[in-house]
């Protein structure tokens, strides 16, 4: 055996699981496609990141019409969390129940908020979340406080907070995993969308992988891509086949955890058919790859022609006044939060505007992010064409998102910003992909059980956003971490062999 546990993927789910199980003394091997991210001038260059795409993978997927596109996913130790906005939000309590939306009704979760709450608290402590209880009416019950006080507003964001309160809204502090001083030591830039090369963000590498590797029984294997899983005659996974610096290899263990993200985890299982599982592993329900969700998102710029925006990092405020209501019949609309600073070069990259025009707009704009729930649909799915990934996203609930953006524009004008512009994120943007291996109690209708264990393979866990039954309308990183800690507790109580 090469290890007692092989974890495939080092993003938020895999890293958190490794950190939680490392004290067991069991031999844990983490297999990661990418390498550790190195610092470079491009790491602080917004146009290099968003315009030239220097960190994007050199691969193409196919969309639902068979057209190739460049996915926005990243392959590094730490996964997509290396670029995340460090927002570590809990799902709201209502998100775990069926909810009627403008675009349909969500199925709810097979577990309640109360069942996951202790692991939310543990994940907040592990990822050193900065936040403040009591200023968001939608905040669910916490068994403890945030480990640290909130990241402070910059003056222009503080002014926006006062203006929003002045018109009767409830802006609150974003829960963030950021060491502000350490981040700003590298460069005076925001962290949202910028790679974490200095440890200023509490991401999967700087927290989860770092904690796991403090233990000599944990090994990280980088530059190594998993190509398929191998199943034995008893239904247990016996090996993962990989390609890396040493060529093709077969790695064996009595326990496996898959955590390569909602698209790649589904694709790896679909690439692993055998005689007993002709439609891929973990797919006895025919739900693998289905129910793909990607948040409906728009950038919204609040502009005052005579007020300068001098913020550097900006991303400290959110608003959930329209999270659970606001639609024409009281339906939910979604979450609003600040974007990281949209500088002139970033705006040029996203809009095609001449740089002087983009600079003029950017210097007078506060940048917000409107996010609405995408609903699960079995026909919204990941599949394969040969060895190539096909991502056929059936966007849903778009009317609710349009209503959220319209409401936000109205409120920003009331708050004193006469010009408000918006632009939706396109299909190439991975806005919190999830849902392709949903958890559930019924093996005929789900891929994993409520502890993230495959219904079909008793020694296979899936610990990334694949298992989320709904996308809600908040950033999923903390929920992924909480579910991984919950799965780790379950594994600790069982015989690993």
TrEMBL record:
Keyword tags: FAD, Flavoprotein, Oxidoreductase
Gene3D superfamilies reported for this sequence: FAD/NAD(P)-binding domain
Keyword Oxidoreductase on entry: yes
Residue ranges of every copy of the Glucose-methanol-choline oxidoreductase C-terminal domain listed in the record: 429-483
InterPro entries: FAD/NAD-bd_sf, GMC_OxRdtase_N, GMC_OxRtase_C, P2Ox-like
Entry GO MF terms: flavin adenine dinucleotide binding; oxidoreductase activity, acting on CH-OH group of donors
Glucose-methanol-choline oxidoreductase N-terminal domain mapped to chain residues: 190-296
Required cofactor(s): FAD
Segments for region (Disordered): 133-153
Domain of life: Bacteria
Keyword Transmembrane helix in record: no
Family: Belongs to the GMC oxidoreductase family.
PANTHER family, per database record: PYRANOSE 2-OXIDASE
Name of this chain's protein: GMC family oxidoreductase
């Amino acid at each position: 055996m090469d290890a007692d546990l092989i974890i495939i993927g080092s993003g938020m789910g895999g890293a958190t699981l490794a950190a939680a199980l490392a004290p067991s003394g069991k031999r844990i091997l983490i297999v990661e496609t990418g390498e550790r991210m190195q610092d470079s001038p491009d790491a602080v260059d917004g146009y290099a990141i968003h315009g030239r795409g220097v960190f994007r993978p050199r691969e193409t997927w196919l969309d639902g019409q068979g057209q190739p596109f460049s996915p926005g996913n990243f392959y590094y130790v730490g996964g997509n969390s290396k670029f995340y906005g460090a927002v570590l939000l809990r799902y709201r309590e209502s998100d775990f129940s069926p909810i009627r939306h403008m675009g349909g009704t969500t199925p709810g979760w097979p577990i309640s908020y109360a069942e996951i709450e202790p692991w939310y608290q543990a994940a907040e402590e592990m990822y050193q979340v900065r936040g403040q209880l009591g200023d968001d009416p939608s905040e669910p019950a916490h068994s403890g406080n945030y480990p640290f006080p909130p990241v402070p507003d910059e003056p222009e964001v503080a002014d926006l907070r006062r203006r929003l309160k002045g018109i009767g809204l409830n802006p609150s502090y974003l829960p963030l995993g950021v060491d502000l001083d350490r981040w700003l030591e590298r460069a005076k830039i925001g962290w949202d969308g910028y790679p974490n090369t200095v440890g200023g963000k509490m991401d999967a590498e700087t927290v989860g992988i770092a904690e796991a590797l403090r233990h000599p029984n944990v090994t990280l294997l980088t530059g190594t891509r998993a190509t398929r899983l191998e199943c034995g005659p008893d239904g247990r996974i016996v090996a993962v086949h990989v390609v890396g610096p040493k060529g093709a290899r077969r790695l064996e263990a009595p326990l496996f955890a898959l955590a390569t993200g909602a698209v790649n985890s589904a694709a790896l299982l679909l690439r692993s058919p055998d005689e007993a599982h002709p439609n891929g592993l973990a797919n006895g329900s025919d739900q693998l790859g289905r129910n793909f969700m990607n948040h409906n998102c728009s950038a919204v710029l609040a502009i005052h022609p005579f007020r300068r925006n001098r913020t550097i990092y900006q991303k400290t405020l959110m608003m959930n006044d329209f999270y659970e209501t606001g639609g024409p019949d009281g339906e939910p609309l979604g979450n609003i939060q600040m974007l990281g600073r949209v500088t002139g070069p970033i705006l040029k990259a996203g809009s095609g505007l001449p740089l002087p025009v983009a600079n003029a707009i950017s210097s007078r704009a506060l940048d917000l992010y409107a996010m609405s729930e995408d609903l699960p649909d079995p026909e919204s799915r990941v599949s394969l064409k040969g060895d190539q990934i096909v991502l056929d996203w059936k966007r849903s609930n778009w009317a609710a998102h349009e209503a959220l953006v319209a409401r936000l524009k109205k409120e920003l004008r009331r708050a004193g910003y006469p010009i408000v512009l918006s632009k939706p994120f396109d299909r190439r943007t991975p806005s919190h992909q999830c849902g392709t291996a949903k958890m559930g109690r019924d093996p005929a209708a789900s891929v994993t059980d409520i502890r993230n264990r495959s219904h079909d393979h008793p020694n296979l866990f899936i610990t990334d956003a694949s298992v989320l039954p709904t996308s809600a309308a908040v950033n999923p990183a903390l929920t992924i971490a909480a579910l991984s800690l919950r799965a780790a507790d379950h594994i600790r109580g069982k015989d690993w062999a």
